[in-house]
Amino acid sequence: MHPVIQETTDRLTARSRASRTAYLRRLGAEAEAARARGPARAGLGCANLAHGFAAASGADERDLRAGVKPGVAIVSSYNDLLSAHQPYETYPPILKAAVRRAGGVARFAGGVPAMCDGITQGRAGMELSLYSREVVAMATAIALSHDMFDATLMLGVCDKIVPGLLIGALHFGHLPAVFVPAGPMPSGLPNKVKARTRQLFAEGRIGREEMLDAEARSYHSPGTCTFYGTANSNQVMVEVMGLHLPGATFVNPRTELREALTRAAGRRAVEITAHGDEYAPVGEVVDEKAIVNACVALLATGGSTNHTMHLVAVAAAAGIELLWDDLAALSKVVPLLARMYPNGQADVNHFQAAGGMQVLIGDLLDAGLLHADVLTIAGRGLDRYRSEVTLKDGEPVWAERTGGSTDPGVLRPAHDPFSPDGGIHILDGNLGRAVSKVSAVGAEHLLVEAPAKVFDDQAELLRAFEAGELDGRDFVAVIRYQGPSANGMPELHKLTPPLAVLLDRGQRVAIVTDGRMSGASGKVPAAIHLSPEAARGGPIALVRDGDPIRLDARAGTLELLVPADELATRAPRGAPLTDAQWTGTGRELFAAFRRTAAPAERGGGIFALNGHTGAADGRP
After folding, report:
1. How far apart, in whole angstroms, are the C-alpha atoms of residue 305 and residue 489?
2. What residues form DSSP beta bridges with 509?
């Protein structure tokens, strides 16, 4: 094991000892009760149980009533609006049949909302996006609260949905949780063409119909979007944490192998309940080593910056106190092994074709960068995830893969990486702490020092670009009042094309914001998730137009180059919208979330995180 990986894990374990011990004590008590009583529904009263099988019929009714076979909950984010979740329409009957053949009985326990950041980009709905993670977690808890289940099958893919499902599942930590992916859509318009088309549209050189046609050729069928954003970062980390079946992550929808893996997931959920010999409760699978493994995978693939918040929140749900300091330490020694858009031109299908997860995991294990001695839903030991899955007689079979990556332009071994350190850096300075995704940024842009150009809303910047006010000047765009407590921390994805245009013209530009960009900043250097945020009195509220700012992603610093005594005389400028102003698109229903949201560094959520709530801001 690499010494920094081990040292970081040891610090994380020591820091989390009290909260993790309390969590495991509760998990152990629930697991012991489960073993003693048999299937969970056996503990229900007659009226309670009768309600639980009233809608069932035939064998399902008999099995639910008898209380002998283990019960499996299906919790799904299915809807047919979103391509990533549309494939789940057919999963429940497939899973029910597989569970029945394995000796269990499955019910569709509940649905969770799934919103698409792609649809809501730049619109009011995006201001509910981060909050939706908490809604998904709570909806998961409601689905499982009927106390009729001995394992769960979690169906979700995208941004906030998977972290929300996992947070909810961890609050029922004695239950095994098998995550069932839907897979990415086939490749569409090449990413280089898509990015160039967006810049042309931002410059007004092509019209809406041409732009819409390009987007439609990019997002063109059921399945997850193929670029390497939050959704596909979710899938990588879930497999590395041992919550997917080996090799299940990037198999396309509507293929024989995809359906075979779905059936296998149903069977596996039955095999790992407390009533068998391979009990794997999710609260034990997600331990300190699994959290570190997830961090390593995120860094090694240049994954989504959103997970600097989601991983903190997920870890806390398991009683583990993950800090940005841990990510910073890991980033210095974890090499960048993958290039997927926006960090390169390939997509996740190219990554899969180059060897995919089994090659990535194998290389990281060989380099001592992942913990191998972990519990997974596939059994003890992460070495199982080196295996390549293929189809034989209609069923998935796993065999050791021989050879490494077949495309070194997409996936490389640890001894020959794209970069010696991880794709995400933590920045620190007198403006606070921020996250910077550097894997797609040219070396010449990792250091930017320029005057600030301040905006209190992303629409202001877009209007300034369209009016030509940003032409011919170097600047650091400061977009504030975009944090969890201000307006839900929307992604500022629409800023990327215009700023990329200015970058291509030879201007030196960068972004500093307390909002999110999900790694969509691409080649534009950006310091995001700035904490403390402007709405909580962060120094970003003191910045004025023309103030020099130095963003040095290589050194990990972010400085407002204004004397401290002058800053001390300044009053904050701007303000977040009031509750009365923050209305429409249902936003008024989430006013309580704004008042209780934790800072980005503490996960950006509304749940208490190891004693820290949204009431306290700043560094932990």
Report:
1. 13
2. 475
121 vs 124: CA distance, rounded Å: 8
**pLDDT tens per residue across span 551-594:** 999 999 999 999 999 999 999 999 998 999 999 999 999 999 99
Say if CB 313 and CB 163 are below 8 A apart. yes
Band of residue 614 on the pLDDT scale cut at 50, 70, 90: very low
Residue 30 has pLDDT above 60, yes or no: yes
Alpha-carbon span 156 to 82, nearest angstrom: 12
452 phi and psi, to 5 degrees? -75, 145
Q: Treating both helix axes as pointing N-terminal to C-terminal, what angle do 3-15 and 17-37 enclose, rounded to 10 degrees? A: 80
- Cα 238 vs. chain centroid, distance in angstroms? 9
The amino acid that residue 593 corresponds to is F
Look up residue 527 and give its two tokens: 């310091």
Is domain 424-577+585-600 in CATH 3.50.30.80, yes or no?
yes
Return phi, psi of residue 453, to 5°.
-125, 110
Q: Look-up: residue for tokens 């992550």?
A: 249
SS3 (DSSP) at 111: strand
Find, among 533, 494, 527, the residue nearest to 511 by Cα: 527
Instruction: Choose among 377, 400, 45: nearest CA to 178.
Output: 377
Percentage above 90 pLDDT, the chain: 83
Burial per residue of 236-250, b for 16 or more beta-carbon CB atoms within 10 angstroms, e otherwise: bbbbbbbbbbbbbbb
Return d(Cα 159, Cα 118) in angstroms, integer.
10
Q: How far apart are CA 46 and CA 2, in angstroms?
A: 55
Distance from C-alpha of 472 to C-alpha of 317, rounded to nearest angstrom: 48
Give me 321's structure tokens: 């106190």
The 3-state DSSP class for residue 180 equals coil
Centre a 10 Å sphere on the Cβ of residue 329 and count the other Cβ atoms it contains.
19
Residue 397 in this model has a pLDDT that exceeds 60? yes
| pLDDT for position 39 | 92
Which of helix, strand or coil describes residue 552?
strand
Query: What is the CA 408 to chain-centroid distance, rounded?
Result: 26
Cis peptide before 532 (omega within 30 of 0): yes
Degrees to nearest 5, angle at CA 488 with 487 and 492: 85
State how far the Cα of 542 lies from the Cα of 549, in Å rounded to an integer. 12
The mean per-residue pLDDT over the stretch 290-294 comes to 98
Q: What whole-number distance in Å separates Cα of residue 278 and Cα of residue 494?
A: 47
Which string of DSSP letters, residue by residue, matches 492-531? -GGGHHHHHHHHHTT--EEEEESSB-TTTTTTS-EEEEEE
| pLDDT per position as a tens digit, 429-454 | 999 999 998 888 888 999 999 999 99
Mean pLDDT of the chain: 93
Q: How far apart are CA 88 and CA 254, in angstroms?
A: 11
- From CA 25, how far away is CA 508, in angstroms rounded? 54
Predicted confidence (pLDDT) per residue in 233-256, tens digit: 999 999 999 999 999 999 999 999
Return the percentage of the chain with pLDDT > 70, whole number: 97
Nearest to 160 by CA among 124, 117, 125: 117
SS3 616: coil
Q: Domain map of the chain by residue range?
A: 24-186+221-287+302-317, 424-577+585-600
